[in-house]
Amino acid sequence: MNLRSQPLRSQPHRLPTGGLIDRDRPLRFTFAGRRYTGYAGDTLASALLANGVRVLGRSFKYHRPRGLLGAGAEEPNVLVTVGEGAWAVPNLRATEVPLYDGLVAAPVNCWPGVGFDIGAINNVFSRFLSAGFYYKTFMWPDWHLFEGFIRKAAGLGKVENLPDPHRYETCFAHCDVLVIGGGPAGIAAARAAARSGARVLLVEQDAVLGGRLNHDDAMIDGLGAPAWIRSAERELAQAPETRILRNTAAVGYFDHNLVALLERVEWDPARLATPGQAACRFWQVRAGRVILATGAIERPLVFGGNDRPGVMLASALRQYVNRYGVAPGRRAVIFTNNDDAYTTAFCLADAGVEVAALVDARKAPEDLAAQLRGRGIALHDMSVICDTRGYKGLKAVRLRDASGRMGWIDCDLLGMSGGANPTAHLFCQSGGRLRYDEEQALLRPGPAVQAMEVAGGANGTLALGPALEEAHAAAMRALEGMGQMPAAIPAPRAQASRTATITPLWSVAGGKSKAFVDFQNDVTLADIGQAHRENFVSVEHLKRYTTLGMAPDQGKTSGVNALAIMASLSGQSIDATGTTTYRFPFTPVPLGALRGSATGPLFRPVRRMPGHACHAALGAVFEEYGGWQRPSCYLRPGETPHAAEQREAAQVRRAVGLFEGSPLGKIEVKGPDAARFLDLVYANTLSTLKVGRCRYGLMLNEQGVIIDDGVAARLGEDHFLVGTTSAGADRIAAWLEEWLQCEWVDLDVVIAPVTAQWGVLTLSGPQARAVLARAGTDIPIDAAAFPHMSVRDGYVADIPARVMRVSFTGEMSFEINVPADRVDALYQALMAAGADMGIVPVGVEAWMILRTEKGYLHIGVDTDGTTNPLDVGWARVLGKKVDFIGKRSLLRPADQAPDRLQLVGLEAMDGPDHLPVGSHLRLAGRGDGSDGYVSSSVFSPTLGRGVALAMIHGGHKRLGEAVTILCAAGERPARIVELASYDPSGERLND
Amino acid sequence: MLRLSCPFCGPRDEREFHCGGQSHIQRPGPAEAVSDASWGSYLFDRINPRGHHAERWHHSFGCGRWFNVLRDTTTHHILAVYAMTEPVPDMVQSDSVA
Ligand SMILES: [Zn+2]
């Protein structure tokens, strides 16, 4: 059914006038499967309230029906999933989701639905679900028996098991002054800083600037609030170095003034599907100075049944009335311990909502009492609300006066106010501590520990005039702190207001219903009492035991009440009780926003070899090896990859193959001390190498573990070319630098990684020399002039080249290094030269077959993070006279133990099939456990059977012994053999 | 996320650097003259102070140079940046460490 063709439903709770909404732009939306309409400018919350929808979710633990408590980031109850299918985003606060046409939302914590919820049975059995229930109830007999039920019944939200189609962007910014919060204080601070010429970034989580001015009108500098906001916005827009980010929440405060922001760019899936349209931007801002103007959050009062749909924060009611033009109820009661909530009573009455009573726990201030009388609102002071009634929505509240007399007042709306508390999450994340302000009954920031100023409500300065002055002064101090000259401009002035008062009221006893402290985590007054009785003294323990203040909520509405209750139970002061740690993020951040665009093909850069196009033209199958796209094999028509690998390997033994080895690490080491340096970093000796010759070497770490291998060539007395594995190219270059810069600082050596500068094409096979000669070279290449393990400079096919006779295949090989941009030309020349000699392109897999036949080890495949040179047959390094990295570790008894895992060859005894790589094996006469494993295994086309390498305990002394291979197919017999299965004497290399 | 001042490049974000851990560790030698205990200490023993910590950092995504940093582990204040060859600057521990 097409949502957009449905007739508009009426919005029974929409006031006839008022609000920052566009009544000419009705928007259709669906919540929990039912269709409604709201207006542009609504949030999902205000639109639902306008439609009279009261039960909007179920609570986390007891699955009690819940409605809205607040109107902004503090909302703990109404978490929704917005969107459908892959576009669904869970755990959004309905108060922070702007309405758009076609929005589809559902509550996160109901099963099967809001109206009937199976989990509500938890409410009946709630005595089993009190504080610490996870730890106590599910200990016996086994947590796993309960886990399935718990996981289904609990938890917030559900993520679709589909790829996330949203586009996320990552932004970085620097500024002089970062102002967090676009309320009156934030605007005043940003304006003062901008006028002084500073680079200013002003961020506001709401879609509009103004903060509370959007629901509490005031006169500032002779202007009404809307006009003042507009004039400030105009001025900031014109300031050349100032930027405003709306819909942007500051979510994290890290070291050295790094602040993380989450900008919500677009919600509507219809627009999100447009290519390039971001859903969120995750900003990382490094700010010279931060001005925290995050305002304050109203505290609920803690009394029986304070969680029924219809019990809301008093200040939130003003927001719904004034900003959204919604009457949140028909008949209201206000319950307060401070002056601010009186404003709500007046606001509701003026909007035409019947206010049945205002209940003040204190003696009411006379001037406010007079104003109530003027509007005909009944006042019950020195009284409290101790209980409420109404399962799916508030029906009545129970009044108790100072003498203990009780009575029920019918109402469908209760506005409560326990006072306001600074939104100090970011301050705490920055490392600052809060301290208790007795007079205002709030926790406010102590001294800042980073380059930060706190102003306005966030600093406990709740009245508008002082907040504006404080923010202005904060901007001046911030500029001075950075050595900038503040402009001589006056602070904005608000009309004077009366001094507000408060008397703390942390909890009200005597109600039959549960009294909630943390609505999101379903933690009650009784739970805190129980935790106290069970000797939980630290607030951090209280938090973990009861789950108070955890998860997305981060104690926004509950934190201070919980501390105060804890303090009163323990008889400690609130300061001595301390606060729990507020954590990143202040408000939930989609994981996708953290990863940004780094996913799929953009997860990391794709590295292609210089000869990539040549391989592609020859039918290469590309796979990633060590971050490089390399040919695994070259498929001929109708060929399987396995057949191609076998064919390529066989052709290298028979004739000649051409392999690109450009990713091989190449590091030039030069200087008078180059030879001495390489003796220190290789386990074997390099200083005795003659100019023009090459030597294979192993590098160890200080643990004596092999970290890389490769061939080093001596280009001159003071000049070496160090070859590393492809995967080790960057790592080994950094390793050598670290030793030179940090340990052997006196050595006169420089190193230069040149891996990407040189491309490498390797001719390998009995015809290699003939192909090289045909391609044309000025280097004498006969065996006497150019023996195995030597290096020559010259030209190949008219391309300047450095040629090395080294071999990873056991065949005669020429590694031809040329400038990377000449690889293409050389590749064509060599293929053409070898055409009638049977040359084939060879991929990585064939290369691995050839080296396994020869028993050449592959670092990281045949070795792991424990393998030392002795384990691979290099005991001779112990005889090296001079010191080298890792030498001392090789002298430890454990490094020389005879039963270490040692590299050996392995031959299957039950036929030609090759053994599975990774299989464990067992020595003869051993009943259980593993005596080693198969590290490399291939089918050799030349030998017509499998060949394998293995790491076996004490393997070197067990040559010829039988072993049993334990594999999925069952047990297979094999025996330990020499490493090289093919040409063990190496005579083919010396042709 | 720290902000470090590379002695060669100037202030940069921590993401450009790599921390090499505790600095000023003396490598014992020659190998044959080193006891198991002192070699083990060189390999594995690291201080974990609450307060000043001298550590070496590498400007991996910049100039590629190593340098020393004196950092307060409780406040993350960078107290000094100095060359690999220089000794730890003499600095009084701040009050916050007490
Ligand atoms: Zn640098």
UniProtKB/TrEMBL annotation, chain A:
<dbReference type="Pfam" id="PF01571">
    <property type="entry name" value="GCV_T"/>
</dbReference>
<dbReference type="InterPro" id="IPR042204">
    <property type="entry name" value="2Fe-2S-bd_N"/>
</dbReference>
<feature type="domain" description="SoxA A3">
    <location>
        <begin position="512"/>
        <end position="594"/>
    </location>
</feature>
<comment type="similarity">
    <text>Belongs to the GcvT family.</text>
</comment>
<dbReference type="InterPro" id="IPR041854">
    <property type="entry name" value="BFD-like_2Fe2S-bd_dom_sf"/>
</dbReference>
<feature type="domain" description="GCVT N-terminal">
    <location>
        <begin position="612"/>
        <end position="878"/>
    </location>
</feature>
<keyword id="KW-0560">Oxidoreductase</keyword>
<dbReference type="Pfam" id="PF08669">
    <property type="entry name" value="GCV_T_C"/>
</dbReference>
<feature type="domain" description="Aminomethyltransferase C-terminal">
    <location>
        <begin position="902"/>
        <end position="983"/>
    </location>
</feature>
<dbReference type="InterPro" id="IPR029043">
    <property type="entry name" value="GcvT/YgfZ_C"/>
</dbReference>
<dbReference type="Pfam" id="PF13510">
    <property type="entry name" value="Fer2_4"/>
</dbReference>
<dbReference type="Pfam" id="PF12831">
    <property type="entry name" value="FAD_oxidored"/>
</dbReference>
<dbReference type="InterPro" id="IPR013977">
    <property type="entry name" value="GcvT_C"/>
</dbReference>
<dbReference type="Pfam" id="PF17806">
    <property type="entry name" value="SO_alpha_A3"/>
</dbReference>
<dbReference type="InterPro" id="IPR028896">
    <property type="entry name" value="GcvT/YgfZ/DmdA"/>
</dbReference>
<dbReference type="InterPro" id="IPR036188">
    <property type="entry name" value="FAD/NAD-bd_sf"/>
</dbReference>
<dbReference type="InterPro" id="IPR006222">
    <property type="entry name" value="GCVT_N"/>
</dbReference>
<dbReference type="InterPro" id="IPR027266">
    <property type="entry name" value="TrmE/GcvT-like"/>
</dbReference>
<protein>
    <submittedName>
        <fullName>Sarcosine oxidase subunit alpha family protein</fullName>
    </submittedName>
</protein>
<dbReference type="InterPro" id="IPR006277">
    <property type="entry name" value="Sarcosine_oxidase_asu"/>
</dbReference>
<dbReference type="InterPro" id="IPR041117">
    <property type="entry name" value="SoxA_A3"/>
</dbReference>
TrEMBL record, chain B:
<dbReference type="InterPro" id="IPR038561">
    <property type="entry name" value="SoxD_sf"/>
</dbReference>
<dbReference type="InterPro" id="IPR006279">
    <property type="entry name" value="SoxD"/>
</dbReference>
<dbReference type="Pfam" id="PF04267">
    <property type="entry name" value="SoxD"/>
</dbReference>
<protein>
    <submittedName>
        <fullName>Sarcosine oxidase subunit delta</fullName>
    </submittedName>
</protein>
